[in-house]
Amino acid sequence: MSLDLSIPRGLLLALLPELVLTGWAMILLLFVAWRHRTTRDLRVAGGITAVALVTTAATVWWLWWNQAGVAGIAQMVAVDDYRWVTDWLFLGAAGLTVLVSFEYLERERLLAPEYYVLLLFAVIGMMLMGGAEDLMVLFLGLELMSIAVYVLAGFDRRNPRAAEAALKYFLIGAFASGFLLYGIALIYGATGTTNLSLVGVQVDSLRLGSDPMLLIGLGLLLVGFAFKVAAVPFHMWAPDVYDGAPTPVTAFMATGVKAAAFAALFRVLTEAFPQAGAWREIVAGLAILTMVAGNLVALAQRSLKRMLAYSSIAHAGYLLVAVATGTSAGTAAFLVYLVAYTLMTLGAFALLAAKGRGGESDVLIDDLAGLASRRPWLAFALAVCMLSLLGFPGTAGFIAKWYILLAAAGVGEWLLAAILVLTSVVSAGYYLPVIMVMYMKPEPFEQAHTGVKLGRLAGVAVAAAVAGILYFGVRPNGLLDLAKETGVGVKPVPTFTVEPSGR
Amino acid sequence: MPPLTLTVFWALAGMAITGATLCITRRSPLASALWLVVTLFALAGLFVLLDAQFIGVLQVLVYAGAIMVLFLFVIMLLNLGRPGPSDLKGPVGGAVAALLAGTLLLQLGGVGSSGPPDVIRMPEGTVAALQREQGMVGAVARPLFDTYLIPFEITSILLLAAIVGAVVLAKRKL
To answer: How many Cα atoms occupy the beta-carbon half-sphere of A409 within 13 Å?
Structure first.
């Protein structure tokens, strides 16, 4: 199905997933305007959100099944497999977050169903980022996502830490948006267009590979993105914000938001700047710094939530390695890693939400002692998540890391590959103690774990995440094939040829 | 470019930068807001220099007018008129900031002297001709509802999300 974006029908079809989700967000907004007092209203709002996410995923599937594509260069939104796969990822991360949120919101007395409306707005923004073919759409999607998540981070207003997290996130986020916007303006100044493919064409045909204006623009763009994905040295906000926000929101920020920023960064770099190679060294440098600093600082953490926050920074480093390779093998590895990372991080945060109370920032790793004897299934699930984050063979984390290593070795980035392996070994120093205290230390006192309760729906989310980790760890082929086909979709456009994209 | 236009450009550019610098260094929020007005007016002048009078007028009406009044209302309502403690980082921070800003200015100066390649440069008077053809509003409105329809519509969702977020954060009972 080849779409013509210049006529209304083609445009509507190309934007169908976003339109469906926006429609649901409006319905939900009207619903919560009248019904927002009782816990029942909250549950119904959550149910509507879940239905919205499922129908949108089905819409994306329908477009994928019909091999929707665009003849020539797409305007504003891309219509390719990369967009569909990233859409599924964002919808899946949001779906798991909703499942975890159901009981969490009631337990923490956050009885405001607007939570789900903002979640849906954030997902719309992410989908626009993953599908943006124009820097303007990319920026607006980023802002839509960010504004919704700023509020979600400070949703628990009674908690001063959450308020601090929201304000910090807002200020740093606005600052990062400024960098991004200035970068976009300079890129427009150098190439005369904001369309990603056309920027690629202009860079090639006007030989702008070392043009100072373009390079400054690219550099500012990278700084903006580095803030958003929390790459070292632009990561200072991340631990405090992840620590202060309500745990389901933290899970959503660490997975969906980060994945969206990465998805957009990857598309921008591979479509618009395949000829301006300068970013490869910058991204590689960021990757090295992020891997080393993220893992070393995570070693020193005693609080489980902070440890997971630093671990999320370290994983951003591994993802940057995949971005730095910039080949189609790199794309496949990148997507596989995003899926694995989303599953294991969401699972870990969901289990943390079951253990703690009042924001969970006071749960120390040692507090998990003896959990295995009291709650064997919870301990097992957390152990699987930790092993997968570590990259233990048999889990999705291992397969994903392996593909990144292969991609890095394939382009001769031996230094990156070596640091990836070394820092992964270091990461055992903070992932394994979690498993050790759960299984090998006795309970500190009787009834230490009586309050630990994973709600039924959160249980479903954790079970899905663990099943996914183990399944992709043993049979990654289906996922990898999908990612590989997608990798061909996002490719540099070296010359101005019109070719039907699609599978 | 005629020398008079260039002079006016540099005057307005200097005004914008001075206003912006003073806006972020004043201790009183009220003074900051008023310096922001200066910056916004200078920007409006720059738009007029670029043959974009309509956008220049909008800039004055919307930003220097409506939004600034809103800013001042909020400052007055929250009683923030008095100068607060300064949050500048002292001489070392200032030196680092000046160094970075100087580097960026130097690099951008190099860019400015070379200018964009001729291929993407619009021929002199294109905008003026366009405006004669469609009128000033049409030259802005047509692309807005045609080429840039999707970004324009996304903006409406963005504003809605911002409103919902503001209500959530500000409402009395959670």
So the answer is: 10
d(CA A2, CA A77): 14
- pTM value? 0.92
pLDDT reading at A182 higher than 60: yes
Of A246, A305, A239, A251, whose CA–CA distance to A94 is shortest? A251
Q: Where in chain B is the domain with CATH 1.20.120.1200?
A: 1-64
Per residue in B35-93, pLDDT (tens digit) is 999 999 999 999 999 888 889 999 999 988 899 889 888 888 887 777 777 767 778 88
| Dist. CA A143–CA A176, nearest whole Å | 11
Six-digit token string for A491: 């490719």
Contact map slice: B 149-168 vs A, CB within 8 A: 149-151, 154-155, 157-158, 160-162, 164-165, 167-168
Identify which of A244, A238, A366 has the alpha carbon closest to the alpha carbon of residue A293: A238
Six-digit token string for A292: 């080393």
B1-64 classified as CATH 3.30.428.10: no
SS3 category, A28: helix
Average confidence (pLDDT) over A298-325: 92
Q: How far is Cα B87 from Cα B103, in angstroms, rounded to an integer?
A: 24
* Residue that has been written with the tokens 């206003």 in this structure: B19
Q: Are A308 and A360 in contact (CB under 8 A)?
A: no
Which one of B100, B108, B114, B154 would you mutate to disrupt binding with A, by most A Cβ within 10 Å of its Cβ?
B154
Q: Residues 134..193 of A with a Cβ closer than 8 Å to B: which?
A: 134, 136-137, 140-141, 143-144, 147-148, 150-151, 154-155, 157-158, 186, 189-193
Cα–Cα distances (Å) from A78 to A142, A196, A340, A501, B84, in that order, read: 16, 10, 25, 10, 48
CB-based contact (8 Å) between A490 and chain B? no
Residue pointed to by tokens 């070693």: A299
Residues of B in contact with A171 (CB under 8 A): none
Q: Is the pLDDT of residue A469 over 60?
A: yes
User: Nearest residue on chain B to A37, judged by CA atoms?
Assistant: B174
Lowest mean pLDDT among A3-17, A122-136, B116-130: B116-130
Mean pLDDT of A75-100: 92
Provide the pLDDT for residue A497.
Answer: 37
The closest alpha carbon to B44, from B66, B26, B61, belongs to B61
The complex's ipTM works out to 0.89
Domain boundaries, chain A: 287-492
pLDDT digits 0-9 by tens, A244-282: 899 999 999 999 999 999 999 999 998 888 876 778 889
